Amino acid sequence: MISIHQPDDLISISLYNIFNYRKNDEKFIELVTDWNKKIVIHIEPFYPVTVIFEGSEINFQIGEAENADMKLRLKMDTMLDLAYGREDAFSAIGEGKLEMEGLGDDSSMIGRFYGIFMESMIAVAADPQLHYYEINENSR
């Protein structure tokens, strides 16, 4: 079992809800447990949040941790496009819509990141009860 601590700011609460959606998923639990990383997520135009994975706990900290293992920067539209499958992560990186640093050549870290973050966003977006985040293509 993992413990996801309830944050008190907008972006962290959004991330909390995304992770909480999968907290009983065995694959998610396996990926999160003992990852022991600090990941900075900066969803523009908002502020950065550091997600701290430690043992079987997930915590949130407003701001950018100096000793972060990975940093991610993207716009809200890009995050929604990734979640709803309108864009894939590799294309977003290639087009400069998703900036990542700290991944290096560690394929296990890339795989874990994808399994925790991207698969969680996709799962939440695919739930027909949660489509209030979906953007109508005609409204862009």
| Total individual domains | 1
Rg for CA atoms: 14 Å
Instruction: Please tell me what the overall shape is.
Output: globular
- Tell me the number of strands: 6
What characterizes the major β-sheet? 6 strands, mixed
Q: N-to-C terminal Cα separation, in Å?
A: 41 Å
* Sheet with most strands: strand arrangement: 1-4-3-2-5-6
Contiguous low-pLDDT stretches (5 residues minimum) are none
> Averaged pLDDT, please?
89
Percent strand: 15-25%
**What's the CATH architecture?**
2-Layer Sandwich
Approximate helicity band = 25-40%
* Number of DSSP helical runs: 5
CATH superfamily: SCP2 sterol-binding domain
Determine and state the CATH class. Alpha Beta
Question: What does this entry look like structurally?
Answer:
- The protein is an alpha/beta fold and 140 residues long.
- The chain has a single domain (3-133), classed as SCP2 sterol-binding domain (Nonspecific Lipid-transfer Protein, Chain A, 2-Layer Sandwich).
- The protein is built from five helices and six strands.
- The protein has helices spanning 10-20, 26-32, 76-83, 89-94, 107-126, and strands spanning 3-4, 37-44, 48-54, 57-62, 70-75, 98-101.
- A six-stranded mixed beta sheet has the order 1-4-3-2-5-6.
- A hairpin with a 3-residue loop joins strand 2 and strand 3 (48-54).
- The model has no long low-confidence stretch (mean pLDDT 89).
Q: What's this, in brief?
A:
By secondary structure, this protein is α/β, with parallel strands linked by helices. The protein has helices at residues 10-20, 26-32, 76-83, 89-94, 107-126, and strands at residues 3-4, 37-44, 48-54, 57-62, 70-75, 98-101.
